[in-house]
Amino acid sequence: MNGAFRPLDVEAIRGDFPILKQEINPPLIYLDSAASSQKPNRVIDVLSDYYRTYNANIHRGIYRISEKATEQYEEARKKIARFINSPRACQIIFTRNTTESINLVANSWGNANLRAGDEILISVMEHHSNLVPWQLLAQRTGAKLRYIEVTDEGLLHLEELDRLLTERTKLVAVTHVSNVLGTVNPVQSITAAAHAVGAKVIIDAAQSAPHLPVDVQAIDCDFFAFSGHKMCGPTGIGVLFGKLDLLEEMPPFLGGGSMIRTVQREHSTYADLPQKFEAGTPSIAQTIGLGAAVDYLNDVGLDAIHPHEQELLEYAHQKLSEIEGITIYGPKPRHKVGAVTFNLDRIHAHDVAGILDQDGVAIRAGHHCTQPLMQKFGVIATARASFYLYNKLEEVDSLYEGLLKAQKILIRRRG
Fold first, then answer.
1. pLDDT tens, residue by residue, 137-149
2. pLDDT above 90 (res 60)
3. Active site residue: 90, 221, 232, 369, which one?
4. Which of 20, 68, 64 is nearest to 44 (CA)?
5. Which has fewest Cβ within 10 Å: 97, 120, 139, 179?
6. Model confidence at 415, in pLDDT bands (50, 70, 90)?
7. 232 an active-site residue?
């Protein structure tokens, strides 16, 4: 693919993704990008090129292929810094995924700064990755968790912020986009409110970085975490952005090679950022691959991807609403990104997914690592179809037909 498409040339983009060109029957209709996106040839080729031509460890090898690997690894850091408008590349810390990025903050900043009686404010719509680390931190420190509730429409009860944010609030942890409902939360205003009481803010951006232009300086968040595999990049690579003063003050999360300056028998001193938080051999190929994914998304243009996804989302809402006995969760399309979550009366979400798979339609079913949110809506599981730049309207039609088929088969079978 050469250059950006305005508007999005979906057929050309689909040609960049080899998994979508498999000659199988039925053909793959991939509607699970919120779990993990597919990978374009550019990313696959970069991974192959690394392993075939310059596979070596980084930073310490004084030979050509090691120097090239180091150069490509650090160039990826610069690309990602520009992608989210980080002031400096050294504020980009590489981890394995969003989950590890959040755990790094919980264990490093959290252990050093929270005490008994302090409060951590999160929301009911958080993925377990932005909930369980704070539960563990509260158990270690004696801090208390408080929750922003979710409306029946699937929006945050933001009118509660003034009551929930107090001088005891030390951290606010909130998702930018719900992985279940697709709700886009106003993280900039939430951050401003948190800072007004002296609290720090971490944003779970796993579902926003692939779909929306993001600017960490405009948001003014203290930490910002996302994963490569949801944005056309490889698995096994995540990103943590942090404000410079916080990262410099924080103790290391993991100890070992690469993160040290000197090691004595009784003590060590630590490397400068970002190496202080990147112990051991990193995910070199995956990081370089994420740099290629960022190049790809920049070439296509998030400003073109987002309107295309909104068209898919609005069409999906329209079509699925025509199905008798369907419940769609979450807000209207104008308040969300990339996903439609639903249940069919009298049919378990897993059974729906199984029937759809027979026709090549891949969706997600389960609690989506958001059990408190499932409890709020009084269900144990839902089905979720999620969209990305390579999906097309005809695939929504296939989803619609598959759901009608599931109703016909499963309800008749159960009498």
1. 999 999 999 999 9
2. no
3. 369
4. 20
5. 139
6. low
7. no
